[in-house]
Amino acid sequence: MTEAIDLSAELLLSAYAAGIFPMGSDNDTEALYWVDPPKRGIIPLDGLRVSKSLRKTVNRTGFDIRVNADFTGTMRDCADRSETWINDAIVDAYFDLHRRGFAHSVETWQNGERVGGLYGVSLGAAFFGESMFSRVSDASKVALVWLVARLRAGNYRLLDTQFTTDHLESLGAIEIPRAAYRSQLAAALGKPGQFHALPTGTPPRDVLSWALDGHAPPA
Which structural domain range is residue 124 located in? Predict the structure, then answer.
């Protein structure tokens, strides 16, 4: 059931800590509803799958990865499809979280244009992935690899994808029962995560090592 909800930052953070999240009914209305799925999608931070072709793409110099360069623009790009739950109320609420340091975007740029990316919410040692988009082959996957590297470098414990899709499952996403999810969530919320632990400008080979092995390669 949809309703008008005043999505304050405090309400949003309390909801995430309780294991629920909001969605918009569509992009033409500001009506929202709360979601608490019986099964939850996650990507185990030691279980990211990176194909040989994706590794080559990550190492390619044609992509420029930026963090929080244009958070609202990334949200708008994620919403740029025929049907979307990211309405104006969602954009406004998450931008407020971003201003307060609780929401982040990882963006893939090429030739001065944003061609892929993702955004989500960070709370404790949990990161809640909200949405991703791609206008160039593998652009969103590259952003995800950089996100996982950042989370592992920052000692995160949980990467929540909300649901699973064939796209996410190809990258290692799995589905777990609500009770198991809430147990992992509680453990993650009790620890500090450092989203900016991976320095800006980290070389792609180091990013891949962090994402896959949890450490940077020797110099």
Answer: 9-29+45-213
